[in-house]
């Protein structure tokens, strides 16, 4: 037997005062009595027991010494050599993915996993170590290797349910890394089996799989996306997918609403295993929260509701300075979000958010603000105007630019386009075969954006092409910044980046669908968000927002929709061959440290001494 | 507080009045002794012996039966009251000490007796007779007696009532009432001494005193029991069971005194030491049927 703390043997010195006190005997209390007649009768009757009474005191001394010896031995924390070699290192992987929220078992699958986990912790033997790893959304070590059962129990109880995907493979890898090459290493997986590569994982020798839950039918929304229409500036399209992941036919109703206003209701009848999908086309200049709800009761709620964020289309002020160009005027008037104003002269400054369109502008300066110059009429500090190009042929288009999205200009006739030589840094989007820029942008810093199209609209056929309104729409979107961009609905567990305006607030918070806030760290004007572990609408907002009124003003562009959107998680029909967990619970029977038994023995001795003491008083 | 203060004397006077009104002739005074002599009340006959006074011959019996029988008459005499006061150290036990009540009782009984023209004598004893107040008559002697009582001290070792009574009865004195005021804690037994009194023609009366803690001790655990009479020490471990046993033995002892008194028709009054002496005297009177 080895001692962990041999220095604790020094406490044995306490035996000395115990023996001294016994030898000296504390002076007995003297009680005067008027006569000892009666006492003599009592004690003379019990004379045969006097030897026992003397021994009783000696026995008390021995019990006290034994008590001290046991306590001191317990303080040294003794252990047998085999204890350290037989100690196990256990990695308990708890699946807290979305499917573990299913309520086919009480209270839910995660709750049952925790109950089993608590039993496994209770069954740990002395010197065993355990780590707890969660396998939902992203593998996370909930508790490092420790043998302290209370810590382990607390960590297990603190594991929260997520709506994320199962990451068992990564969790098992992490567990193997933590266990190392220990001979007595064990991995215990508590999961419902809703994950990929299951056979390989479950079949591993060092892993014991405990299946949670039972095969259950489920119907869920497995996809919801929304985007602005390419042709209609205020139109949008909703992609919806509903799957019946059960063994029987299901009738239900799909309801879609935008900002709590009903958009559509679709009755559905789905055959077993059927996946139904449809694209809805709707129009609205307003953006906001789009929610799809499945009116169906089943054992798995997270996929009965899905979210999307529809970008807003706010009105855009456009000032047109042009002479008799109906093409340009009409294409702007036809744009549903444009508020067009005609002007004779360009203003000195363009209001923020507005766009000034200059046609054949002959001035030598550009006003401050966003300016679209078509067929420039003179030189400016940004460029020098040259001769006309007789019939330029487009050979280069910057197709990745949002300004040329869905636009092809390579076979468009553009006679008498103006030659233009940039004097500052310019981004050429369309270039002719002679190398002359036809469509280019200037970054004027704080003075705003400038976009120049050198094409003569009266001579060419560009105004007659479908590309022209798209070109103008792209330009207006470009001037408007990110407004109107599509923000994709993300799946749980994913990461994303969101641009943060540097001017609005110093600190920003991320608010999850449950309303809990987390401070964001911003780098280079962007914040990385995720992995998103709950389905719903996540919001990025300045930390200064406190009231509900302020919250309503959060722009849709700063809202992120997050959905489960995973057939694997929604499919609860996953029967698995599982280990009987009772085998795990038996593993630690009687597994207490030696010092525990020594303390118990000491406690028994105290009881014996107490009995002896009481015998002296009560008889 | 003085042993015999003004309050004590006032109570004595009251007791004296009560005793004259109702007690007189029943307990102490005018009590018929067994002395035969010149009284007027016929007692019995005895055979004539030469030298007897012819005047006492019963001529009627001689005329009828031809026998010479002498008529005997009971002689009325004033009563002799002997107070035997225990002054052993065990009488100093308790709060208040038993000895204080014992002395007050002795003074009170003496006063009542003296007030009825009886004679009293006080014998103080422990292991032997340690002091005496000689036979006295007349109320005037009460103050002397009180001074005597106040001057008494506890002394001696183990109480020896038999030895004390043996010395007492061998004195040449008239028989009378012998009131023993004691706790009766005699290692050799109290009965031997009382028997001697009876056998020698005294009429004993027991006034037994004890303290509450003697009847119901509370000490527990390892203790040294010190006998305050002889100073002996005994180391014992007192348990609850021992205490129960002690109480039973004490109760048996008291019952033994009761039985003994009843068996021999001895007057017996028992009390704790914390009761007023006048209450106890009245209780004695009630026990004798003098007061209701």
UniProtKB/TrEMBL annotation, chain A:
Coiled coil: none annotated. Pfam families: BatA, VWA_2. Keywords: Membrane, Transmembrane, Transmembrane helix. The chain crosses the membrane at residues 6-24, 58-80, 594-613. Residues 87-267 form the VWFA domain. This is VWFA domain-containing protein. It comes from Kolteria novifilia.
Automatic annotation (TrEMBL), chain B:
This is VWFA domain-containing protein. It holds the Pfam family DUF58. It comes from Kolteria novifilia. Residues 78-254 form the VWFA domain. SUPFAM superfamilies: vWA-like. PANTHER family: BLL2464 PROTEIN, DUF58 DOMAIN-CONTAINING PROTEIN.
